[in-house]
Design a protein that fits this description.
By secondary structure, this protein is mainly beta. The chain is 4% helix and 48% strand.
Length: 623
C-alpha cells in the first residue's frame, strides 16, 4: 500500500475539478488529457452505506481505460471551506493524502484493507497491517457473546454476520463503527451454519446444519424478523448475482433454486449428498460438487426435474471447490488429490497429488494453493502450467502444525488484495502469516493476540474493477453532508477533485452546507520584516453573511503553519489580532533562503490547514 501510494505521490499530476450539475450532487464528470472520468455515488437502503462508482474511458473513442490494482486511488473529505481560493490544488492534495503528510488525513480512505478474524473465544478482531508498530496493529476486538458457528463478510456493506450458539443468535457487526448492530434469536442447532448474500435483492440467506428450512434476513429492515422458508435441511448454500434466488443442495442429491414465484429442483443421479455449490458466469451453469466425488452441471433455466446437463466423476472426494479464470475452470480438492476441470468442455485438464489432510483451496493471479493447517503445510501449483496439463507442485510450511485441529467451513486463508501472495491465519500460533507469491517462508506476520482463528477475511476498501474501465468501492460514513472526492490514477495519469453530497445517516443528520467556518475566507494581508523579532505574517479573515463579506475578529485559536517543501522545514505560531478588524499577525524567524508555503487553521470554525492553504509566501514583497 505504501509503495503504491508513494508512486502516485511522486507523479507529476495534472489536476482539474469535476464538473457537476447543480441538481446532481452525487455524480459528475470531467475531461482531462484525453480521458473522460465520470463518477457517481450509489446509496443503499440503509443510510450511511453506499458505493462509489468510477468510469474511465478514452475521450475520443469511448474505449474503457483499465488500471491495474493499486493504480487508481480515491479519498473522501468533509468540505470545510466553500471557496476555491481557500483550497489546496488537486494534484497537491493527492500528494498530501498519499503521503499522509502535513495538514490533512482523509475522513474516508478508500485505499486500504483490514484483516478480520473470527476467533474460537467468541471474539472478532480487526487488524490494521499498515501500522508500523507490531503491538499497535489491533484496531478493534469485539466480544460477540457466544460460540461462532459460521460467518459471512459483506464488503459492500462493511458488515459481518456471525451465527453463534449458547445462546443461538445471528449478530450483525458494523465494521465501520466497530460495534454489534443487530442480534436475531435462532433455534439451537448443533452443527455449522451457512450464510449467503444476494446483492441484487439485498437478502441474506441462512441455513443451519440439521435444521429444516431456509432462513431469510433483510439487513436494511431492522424491524423485520427472521423468515423461514419450509423445506428439508440444506447441506450446501449458494447465492449469486446472476441467479434470481438462492440455491440449496441436500443430502438426497437434490439441488433446488428458490425463486419468488416457485422453486425448481433437480436430482443428481448416483446418490450422495451435495457438498458444495458454485455458479459459473461464463458457462451460465450451477456447478454442484457431490461428496462422493463428482461434479454436476445444472442449467438454472432447465425445467423442474430435468437431469443434470453433465456429470463428471473425479475419482476422489470433494471437500473444497474453487472457480478459476473468471469461472471458466473449477478446481476440486479432497482425499489428498485435486483436479482442474474445464467447465466448457467437461475435461479434466490436470490431476494433482497433495497433502492427505488438505482442506482448503486458494487462488491468486498466478497460483493455486491447497492448505493443510493440521499438517502445517501447503501445496502450490502455477496455474499456467496446470492449464497445459503440467503439474509442478511445491510444498511450503504454513505455521505450526496442529494435528487435532477442528476444520470448519470458514476459510483461514485469503489472497492479499494485490493478488501476489496469501495470508494464512494459523490457530496454533495465534498469528496471521503473509507469504509472497511462490515464497517458501513468510514475508510478514500479524499477531492475532494469542487467539485461535476460526476464519480470516480481508476487508478490501480499494476501488475494484467490476467491468472494463468501471471501478467500485464500498463507502460507509457516519456523517452525511458536503464532502470532497479526490481521485487519482497512474498510467495514464490524472488527478481530479470535486464535491460529493453524502446522504444523512440514521445516527446523525447531514452536515449543513454552511457549517461554521465553511464560508470563512482567509487571505494574505502582508509580510513585514521586523529585525530581531523575525518576520511578521499578516492575514485577513472574513466570512460571508447575507451575501456580504464581513471581518471576523474574535478567533482565539487561529494558527499559522509555514512549511518549505524543498527542505521540509516547518514552524507554527498563534495568530493574534493586530490592526484593522479581521486582521491577525504572527512573527517567526525564517531560515535564510526559505520559500515556505503558508496555511491557517481554526478548530473552532472547522477550518483545517488543508482548506486554509494560502500558498507560497511572496518573500520578495516583504517590507
Amino acid at each position: 500500500m505504501r509503495r503504491r501510494l508513494a508512486l502516485l505521490a511522486c507523479l507529476g499530476l495534472t489536476a482539474t475539478g469535476l464538473a457537476q450539475e447543480p441538481d446532481a450532487a452525487r455524480s459528475g464528470a470531467t475531461l482531462q488529457d484525453g480521458l473522460r472520468i465520470a463518477w457517481r455515488y450509489l446509496p443503499q437502503a440503509d443510510p450511511g452505506i453506499g458505493t462509489l462508482e468510477v468510469e474511465i474511458a478514452d475521450a475520443e473513442s469511448g474505449a474503457p481505460v483499465r488500471y491495474e490494482r493499486g493504480r487508481l486511488v480515491a479519498w473522501l473529505q468533509r468540505r470545510r471551506a466553500a471557496l476555491p481560493e481557500a483550497e489546496i490544488a488537486c494534484a497537491d492534495r493527492v500528494r498530501l493524502l498519499a503521503r499522509q503528510g502535513i495538514g490533512q488525513r482523509a475522513d474516508i480512505d478508500l485505499n486500504t484493507y483490514r484483516l478480520v478474524t473470527l476467533n474460537a473465544d467468541g471474539s472478532l478482531a480487526v487488524i490494521n497491517p499498515f501500522v508500523p508498530l507490531n503491538n499497535a496493529k489491533l484496531e478493534t476486538i469485539l466480544e460477540l457473546g457466544g460460540t461462532p458457528r459460521g460467518w459471512l463478510l459483506i464488503p459492500e456493506r462493511l458488515e459481518a454476520w456471525v451465527v453463534l450458539s449458547a445462546p443461538a443468535r445471528l449478530v450483525q457487526v458494523d465494521l465501520q463503527a466497530r460495534r454489534i448492530g443487530r442480534a436475531i434469536a435462532l433455534p439451537e442447532a448443533p452443527g455449522e451454519a451457512m450464510l449467503a448474500w444476494h446483492g441484487p435483492t439485498g437478502q441474506l440467506w441462512l441455513a443451519l446444519a440439521g435444521r429444516d428450512g431456509l432462513g431469510l434476513v433483510a439487513p436494511d429492515r431492522a424491524e423485520a424478523a427472521l423468515r423461514l422458508l419450509p423445506g428439508p435441511a440444506p447441506t450446501a448454500l449458494l447465492a449469486a448475482e446472476a441467479l434470481d434466488g438462492p440455491v440449496t443442495g441436500h443430502a438426497d442429491g437434490v439441488v433446488a433454486l428458490h425463486l419468488p414465484e416457485a422453486s425448481r429442483r433437480w436430482r443428481v443421479p448416483g446418490g450422495g449428498a451435495v457438498r458444495l455449490l458454485r455458479h459459473s458466469l461464463p458457462a451460465g451453469r450451477i456447478v454442484a460438487a457431490m461428496a462422493a466425488g463428482s461434479l454436476a452441471w445444472i442449467d438454472p433455466a432447465a425445467p423442474d426435474g430435468a437431469p443434470p446437463e453433465r456429470l463428471l466423476p473425479l475419482g476422489h472426494p470433494v471437500t473444497a471447490l474453487a472457480l478459476a479464470d473468471g469461472g471458466r475452470r473449477a478446481l476440486a480438492l479432497g482425499g489428498g488429490r485435486a483436479s482442474l476441470v474445464d467447465l466448457a468442455t467437461g475435461q479434466v485438464e490436470a490431476r494433482m497429488e497433495t497433502l492427505p489432510q488438505a482442506h482448503e483451496l486458494l487462488l491468486t493471479d498466478r497460483f493455486a494453493y491447497a492448505v493443510s493447517l493440521p499438517e502445517g503445510r501447503g501445496t502450490l501449483w502455477p496455474l499456467a502450467e496446470l492449464r497445459q496439463g503440467r503439474v509442478s507442485p511445491v510444498e511450503v510450511t504454513l505455521g505450526r502444525a496442529e494435528a487435532g485441529l477442528d476444520i470448519g467451513p470458514a476459510a483461514r486463508a485469503a489472497p492479499v488484495p494485490a493478488g501476489n501472495g496469501i495470508l494464512v491465519a494459523v490457530p496454533a500460533d495465534g498469528m496471521v502469516y503473509q507469504y509472497g507469491e511462490g515464497m517458501m517462508a513468510p514475508i510478514g506476520s500479524y499477531s492475532n493476540y494469542r487467539r485461535a482463528a476460526l476464519g480470516l477475511h480481508v476487508l478490501d476498501l480499494s476501488p475494484r474493477e467490476v467491468a472494463p474501465g468501471r471501478y467500485r468501492s464500498p463507502v460507509r460514513h457516519g456523517q452525511g453532508g458536503p464532502h470532497e472526492l479526490v481521485l487519482a490514477g497512474a498510467s495514464p495519469r490524472f488527478a481530479a477533485c470535486g464535491p460529493l453530497q453524502l446522504p444523512a445517516t440514521a445516527a446523525a443528520a447531514a452536515l449543513p452546507r454552511t457549517l461554521l467556518g465553511a464560508a470563512l475566507q482567509v487571505a494574505l494581508a502582508g509580510i513585514e520584516r521586523r529585525g530581531e523579532a523575525g518576520t511578521a505574517i499578516r492575514v485577513r479573515v472574513s466570512e460571508l453573511a447575507d451575501g456580504a463579506s464581513r471581518p471576523v475578529g474574535d478567533l482565539a485559536d487561529l494558527e499559522l503553519l509555514l512549511f518549505d517543501p524543498r527542505t521540509a522545514w516547518e514552524a507554527r505560531a498563534g495568530l493574534r489580532p493586530e490592526g484593522e478588524a479581521g486582521h491577525y499577525a504572527a512573527s517567526l524567524t525564517l531560515p535564510a533562503g526559505a520559500r515556505p508555503e503558508a496555511m491557517v487553521a481554526s478548530p473552532s470554525r472547522h477550518l483545517s490547514f488543508a482548506t486554509g492553504h494560502l500558498g507560497p509566501l511572496p518573500m520578495a514583497a516583504a517590507r
